[in-house]
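Support reply, case 0932

Customer input (verbatim):
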Amino acid sequence: MNDTSRYWNVLALGLIAGAVTLGTALGEDNTNAPEDSAFIRFCKQDYLLGDWGGLRTKLKDHGVDFEFVYFGAVPSNVGGGLKEGSVYEGAALMLMDLDSEKLVGYPGGHFHVGGLSIHNGPEFSANYVGDLNKVSLLDFPDTLNLWELWYEQKFLDDKISLKFGQLAIDRDFIVSDYYNSLAGITFLNQTFFFPTLAFNVYDQPYFPAGQHALASTPYGTPGVRLRIDPTENAYFQVGAYSGNPDRTRGGTGFPLSEAYGALIYAEAGLKINQSKDAEGPPGNLKLGGYYHTDDFYDEYQGAFVALDNFLVAHGQSPLGIYTTATTHSGNYGAYFLAEQVLWREIGKEDPAQQGLTGFFRVEGAPPDRNLASFGVDGGLVYKGLIPKRDWDTVGVALSYLQVSDDLRRAQRDINTVLTGFGAPPAFSTLADYEGVLELNYKAQLTAWWTLQTSVQRVFHPGARIQQNVPDAWAVIVQTSFRL
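Our regenerated output:
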């Protein structure tokens, strides 16, 4: 462990200890205590910059709501992976929402616009860990871009909702309501926020170039989503999106082209104990899938082409077995998500909703056109575990991502061809899987300030696709401010 990594470990422990101590002091309930001081009132207000002299509340009462959030993180690789070291990652989230009824008296309308500014050092996973899942949610190239720009209209007492504009798919599909939503991030590994298998629709490294990707945060794309809630306990939704979002700086390309195809998502959900009179702990069961209409290269043949492209890029001679790969029409996958509040300390009237939540998710995709064919993750989150720390969360989660058998078969056959000519094998180990274990504690220091530490063990970083990378230990200290 180098000096930099050791420094960040000590700092992380010190920050969390200080957070718990300060937060406990602020949260003590003493009915005989004097009126809150100016400092305590400052800590309890919703935003760091306050209510703008009452303007913020007045605007919200008239249908105009603003939200500004800053995230800062220091991920460190403290052992294994590609190399040890740390980087700083920062992101500013800017949101505005307009309520049509409060603004102009027209019910059911909602306009939303969101932008993101990301400013990072070298990409952490690509340069330090070598993982597919990405241990940090902020691990993206520097950008300042339009994230979302949409209008939503609800009909029939909110039973039908139509949303259209610039959309991010992970705001509507495979979304958690209880353990890792954008409004309440518990885990910092990307796969627990939005499953890595869904990123199969991206081009694969050194494969023949395609024109498809996924519109997930921080990227959006033109699309439309229809949701129907026939009862309080069930819903169905379907969305259609451009198959290749604009990932350049600015994000205002609004790509709509037959060449990009379309990415279609559909999801049905059962809402457990979420009606007005329900007394039991709530939960969700969600079953869905996606279909991309573009052509995708065959995984087996594409692996031979990818090796040739890699060899040529490094000044070597290609094998030349497959000069191109055949394509498959379309790509698809399916998923199932279950999340359930297992135990509540108090009840539904508790504003902090303290208690234990469990989740389980599984995804699958065909191995003949995808890098990953199977994924599963699950875990537990406890809110309010420490007395007087009602809003803090502690979580543990585990994920497993399995590489396509067609890719493994291609690697095995490539090795056979090379050794048959007396050359060394290209792959010392065959691709298999990547796993992640994350332990996370998030402290609510004030109403507007959080501080959390995530410790992650990454098994087989990169799933041994290109090289046998040692298992890695990653530690992340992340903070957020509501401005």
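We compared this against your earlier run and they match. Two observations from our side: The mean pLDDT is 90. The radius of gyration is 24 Å. Please reopen the case if you see a mismatch on your end.
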